[in-house]
Amino acid sequence: MKLLFSESIQQLKTLPTREILKLTQGNDIISFAGGLPAEDFFPDKAIQEAFINVFEQGKQSLQYGITEGHTLLREEISKRMLLKGIQANLDQIQITTGSQQAIDLITKVFINRGDTILIENPTYLAALQVFQGYGANVVGVNSDDDGMDLDDLNEKIKHYQPKFIYVTPTFANPTGRVWSSERKQGILQICKQFETILIEDDPYGEIQFDKAADYSSIYSLHSTNDDFNPVLYTSTFSKIVAPALRTGWVIGEQSIIQQITKAKQTADIHSSMIDQQALYFLLKYFDLDQHIITICNEYKKRKDQMTQLLKQYEIPAKWVEPQGGMFLWLTLQDSKINSAELLKKAVQKGVAFVPGTVFYTGEGEKNTIRLNFTYTPLEQMQIGIERLQHVLS
Amino acid sequence: MKLLFSESIQQLKTLPTREILKLTQGNDIISFAGGLPAEDFFPDKAIQEAFINVFEQGKQSLQYGITEGHTLLREEISKRMLLKGIQANLDQIQITTGSQQAIDLITKVFINRGDTILIENPTYLAALQVFQGYGANVVGVNSDDDGMDLDDLNEKIKHYQPKFIYVTPTFANPTGRVWSSERKQGILQICKQFETILIEDDPYGEIQFDKAADYSSIYSLHSTNDDFNPVLYTSTFSKIVAPALRTGWVIGEQSIIQQITKAKQTADIHSSMIDQQALYFLLKYFDLDQHIITICNEYKKRKDQMTQLLKQYEIPAKWVEPQGGMFLWLTLQDSKINSAELLKKAVQKGVAFVPGTVFYTGEGEKNTIRLNFTYTPLEQMQIGIERLQHVLS
Known about the structure:
The structure is a homodimer. Chain A has helices at about 5-10, 15-20, 45-55, 70-85, 100-110, 125-135, 150-160, 180-195, 220, 255-270, 275-285, 290-310, 340-350, 380-390, and strands at about 30, 95, 115-120, 135-140, 145, 145-150, 165, 195-200, 230-235, 250, 315-320, 325-330, 350, 355, 370. Chain A is of the alpha/beta class. Chain A has 2 domains: about 5-45 and about 290-390, Aspartate Aminotransferase, domain 1; about 45-285, Aspartate Aminotransferase, domain 2 (3-Layer(aba) Sandwich), CATH 3.40.640.10. The interface between A and B is large, with 76 and 76 residues.
């Protein structure tokens, strides 16, 4: 039978590296490829208690819920967001199945085939894939260690009239970068001037190693006296609680959230209500902030270990020391190396990473690789970096 | 700020009745409108035990999972499907966030704007909304109490060359209809002949009042000796376990399921892994089949009560007695009544239903209404039908 698939799904390319990375599963391969949090620190007891609290509420907690998401959870999120300077009432919050679904629904709400989206280049791979699937014209804006180049952004907004701009200003995936205050203020003003929506994806914002440092979200820089906040802010519990719960959220002006809710309703009616209720109880009774301090300390230790090992094994690469998040972004000294080719060799030697090119729209820097430092414990990490040394020598 | 939403989201109309039905929430209104299972029969203790089983597995159960869905759950689904004559290996099963997401992902995989989808008319409202959102040309095929008129189907396939046909052959929403064996065999042959995909949506298939009756799925009528099964079968645990878990699945040829998995990955990476693992344990340790017998007996009782009340209060309408599912489809004797207008009056009198027109593509029968009989206990049901009598008199 001849199958006529949609343009959308045909445009959604399976990554060639996906097949290679599949080989890492179940084998004696040390993988720095996944974006996984460390299992050792999942608050499993507290999560279990939270679920028991849900069941103690009675059978009603097992019924259908509302598309917007569990009201009590949205209240708790609203309170937590205040600590980040984000003011949002319940009508401004939509619960999603991880922040991945937030990206998908936002794109559905704004993008017609051929519309332009501006991005940092490189950026989050699975966002690029969503944009591809909706037939968007994805254009990279020049970026450096402080964020997007605002002159280039200005020009590209004028030239392309993008439907929205997608950024990860705090501990970006894959680069680990943090935008400077000036750039954050700058992009907000530009978005207001050109009436352009800004998607601020913030899954890693709370994984910060220096608790005293200020990593204000772009969303929070908007003054509530102003007319309209062009920022849609999205985050998730996957990195600070546990990924299996698949619970994220998106915050924005009510007129936009209403459209996202409409899209959510046809997509899946609502996300798991049991998980949402459990997260409500977790936020209520568990000291999540203390827990975040614990994982941040541990992740910082692992990051330090990894950078030390990279030096110790004289991996011929440079990187910017990340101040949070989950990734180390390496640029290999030999600019002729194609890291996608290198991966094949690496997997044979028993170590895996993600080649940098997959994070770019267009060509990209072929001699870049992304290493995850949160998942692998020290002993394994050492073996992994040693193997990487063999691959590169 | 001027907001430029996508065509998709603009085409997705909010139903005018949605606002009216919102009024029913929290008020002294007896609602036969929702498609809700009865809470009293949710197996809450067994579900709680299943979740405890998940946590006993350790912290790894809280990590990210694979997009296809929890392997052990797919194995259990594969076994359960065998009892329905459906043979599917693990690569042919994709777990979704309720069967609603299955409908959405299938549509994403096949439909370009302007492509035609053939449907029974009336049919499941939220499927119509998905199709609308993807810009499909939705065309109704003439249907009667035995299913689609196969001559009309033949003609419309030739004329429109649809991408797929969407049917709910067992206890349909809203009509409660069951297709005859001849029609089921017929549509399968036609789909093979014209190489057209058939979506068989089966959320209610197990809510059958006569356990001895044969309600074979269309999917199962395909001989495994044949080349290619054009049927995609989707169902859910929402009606037989509990909706809050939001877990459904879709079964089909591997070449199609692979594309659905690709779409699922960008949509939300995967559905709640905690819920999927809990459902695995539930299927393993809980006697779900006995539980289904219990709810079927109860739902049959409620259906009998409702039809008896409709007669007792001399509601001027006719209906076909449903043999399963959750809905009673009434055609009011007075063909001039517009049930959407009637709903406004009804809500004022303290009773709600869904006006039939929302389930049609095109005009539809204005004097039809859908009543849910599973959710409302007897005493309340009597008050509700009495109120309906007042509205109609």
